[in-house]
C-alpha cells in the first residue's frame, strides 16, 4: 500500500493482493521508521459504518471505509473510492485507488501485483 499527500488530501494506492485482503475484511498497515526511533504508521480498514472516517493519533493515520463500498469497488473496474471529510473548518479529501503498473519507473519499484494499465479507462 502506498501513501501520498498533496495539500489537504491523502491517497492510498493498493495492489491486487491488498484490494482482495481489504475486501475480505482485513486491515492493511504500513510503517515508516525514522532515525531516532520515531515512526509513522498508516492503516486502512473496512468498517461496518456507512461513512468513511479518518484520524491521526500517536503517529498513526487510520482510515476506515464502508465494507459495502469496498466490496463493490474490489469486484468492479472502478479505479477508486473517494471521500470528502469535514476537518476543522476545512475538508480532508481521501482517495483509495487501485495501483496501476508503472510504465516508466525503475525495475526495482515494479509491483508484480499491480493492476494492468488497461484495467480501466480512468487513471
Question: Would you tell me the overall average pLDDT?
Answer: 88
| Side-by-side strand order of the widest sheet | 1-2-8-7
Gyration radius (Cα, Å) is 15 Å
The general outline is globular
Order of helices and strands: EEHEEEEHEE
Helix content: 10-25%
Largest sheet: 4 strands, mixed
Let me know the number of strands. Answer: 8
Distance between the termini: 17 Å
Number of helices: 2
How large a portion of the residues is in β-strands, by DSSP E?
over 45%
Describe this structure in words.
- By secondary structure, this protein is mainly beta.
- It is built from two helices and eight strands; from the N terminus they run E-E-H-E-E-E-E-H-E-E.
- It has a four-stranded mixed beta sheet. A four-stranded mixed beta sheet has the order 3-4-6-5.
- A hairpin with a 3-residue loop joins strand 3 and strand 4.
- Helix 1 crosses helix 2.
- The longest helix is centred in the middle third of the chain and has 9 residues.
In short:
The chain is mainly beta and 123 residues long.
Features:
4-stranded mixed sheet; 123 residues; 46% strand; single chain; mainly beta; globular; 8 strands
Amino acid at each position: 500500500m502506498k501513501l501520498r499527500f498533496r495539500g489537504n488530501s491523502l491517497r492510498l494506492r493498493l495492489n491486487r493482493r491488498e484490494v482482495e485482503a481489504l475486501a475480505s475484511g482485513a486491515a492493511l498497515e504500513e510503517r515508516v521508521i525514522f532515525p531516532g526511533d520515531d515512526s509513522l504508521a498508516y492503516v486502512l480498514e473496512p468498517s461496518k459504518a456507512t461513512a468513511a472516517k479518518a484520524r491521526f493519533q500517536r503517529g498513526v493515520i487510520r482510515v476506515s471505509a464502508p465494507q459495502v463500498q469496498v466490496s463493490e469497488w474490489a469486484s468492479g473496474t472502478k479505479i477508486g473510492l473517494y471521500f470528502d471529510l469535514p476537518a476543522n473548518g476545512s475538508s480532508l479529501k481521501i482517495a483509495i485507488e487501485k495501483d496501476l503498473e508503472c510504465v516508466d519507473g525503475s525495475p526495482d519499484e515494479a509491483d508484480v501485483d499491480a493492476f494492468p494499465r488497461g484495467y480501466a479507462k480512468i487513471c
